[in-house]
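WARN retry 2 of 3 for item q-0093 after timeout on previous attempt; input resubmitted unchanged.
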Amino acid sequence: MSGKKFAVKTIQQEGQVIVQPCGDLDLAAAKEFRSTMEPIVNDAKTELTLDLNELTYIDSTGIGILISILKMRHEQKSAFRITNVPTHVQKLFDMTGISKFLTPQA
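OK item q-0093 returned
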């Protein structure tokens, strides 16, 4: 845990939204992240990309949110991808076994 304050940047382009969580995605940040993500995730027509380049830490709460997003997008048959996964986050995804479901892309 780095203690870096959490923030979410969103970039809207035609037909897609890029979401960039910055800092620590943990229990303290969960409510903010969920409220930002809910309308985006529920818009099945929009491509969703999570750019994790500035994510410094993620705990089980954050991972749970990512899994919820993955499930919802899968049910909607909507585009969802994860990009720029930091090495320390990728290791956690690998250890927990969720890498195969998140299919991060560089």
